[in-house]
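Model it.
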Amino acid sequence: MHNLTIAEIIRKLQAKEFSSEEITRHFLNRIQKLDDTYNSYVSVTEQQAIAQAKAADARLAQGEALAMCGVPFAHKDIFCTEGVKTTCGSKMLDNFIPPYNATVVQNYLDAGAVMLGKTNMDEFAMGSSNETSYFGPVKNPWNTNCVPGGSSGGSAAAVAARMAPGATATDTGGSIRQPAALCGITGLKPTYGRVSRWGMIAFASSLDQAGVMARSAEDAAIMLNVMASFDSKDSTCVDEPVPDYTSTLEDSLAGVKIGVPKEYFEDGLNPGTRARVEDAIKEYEKAGATLLSISLPHSNLAVPAYYVIAPAECSANLSRFDGVRYGHRCDNPKDLMDLYKRSRGEGFGDEVKRRILVGTYCLSAGYYDAYYGKAQQVRRLIKQDFVDAFKEVDVIIGPTAPTPAFEFGSKGDDPVAMYLEDIYTIATNLAGLPGMSIPCGLVDEKPVGLQLIGNYFAEGKLLNLAHQFQLATDFHSAAPVSIKE
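Modeled.
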């Protein structure tokens, strides 16, 4: 059962080949059996899952055609879930039980889906390796000595290890696509505003975007159909009609123009990764697409601009966690200042503190124009690069990450080296564009991701290209040796 895709699970549930309760118990048993190894879940909601599965079975018996009725899946622990602890991977929120559901969570409940639990993540979504969680690092199912990528590493590892057929995730600088690449699964970050951020704990509000992780593009399309909606509670949510993303998966690629940016194939790209990506690009040429060499001339400025803008926004967003309004409160404070200092000092981890300090400095009097203002100007140039490119091409293609999964601790002492892991993904967040990662081969028995970047609200085109690639190849079906049965 655990090797079935979401599309196959839906078909078999509707054909009464098994019940939602049976497949839900199957995944719960796998989590109990395997997750001590991978640490991909922060909490498992067994009783709630069984109750939801029984309710789904009753609906299926009555012929209700809800989009994901009875399908088990997982939520990243950044989404508020009513009555279920939501930690954001931090000691600061270790005891936080939301009284409401995030819009994304409610959309899945309304579609009849079954929540297995909440997945582990880098603290407040800050990290490229999933080593900063208060609840310990997540291990990559392809090689447990290696990271799964971050910050949605728990969701990626859970899907790769067949402990959930799909999971929600978020992407501020590549946190869906990079872990999807390192764990050999399919990950989609939609256009900024396509999916509501209401009830999603904020890291950097102008960059954060919820998305999906699944085994295939078809599954990602099914999940995005459920997740995407206009939400009046989120002022950044865009009121655009939501198409049926499964309806265009079979479209021909003949005549599709694909741009290959030269900046994505320069120094720093692992040779093995380059070879797998170049092989994948040739598959599109075989399918009738036209390849065009393009330039994104300000790509080299994306990382430095991001690491001014994102910390600046995080320093403002995380100011609410002070032990008074929200979050961990220290024991026996001497006075108010002691309460603030010790609550935040004890509640936040080192990476979060680093980014708060950087952001506070960038926003401080005398430095705002020199750093934050300049970074926003650079962001505009990066966006213009994409606007110009999409006048010539339909989709942009390249590597998702510069290397396959790396070993734990290998970049822990060098924040800049860690930040460069997102060098190919950050620019799309700065521009607000949709991006996707799909598996395209192995290097040293570790997965490599192929990145597809689309124009605004072109998620359907990305899913179409990904699905056609997955019809012609079987990289997305490969499973880690450690979990094969």
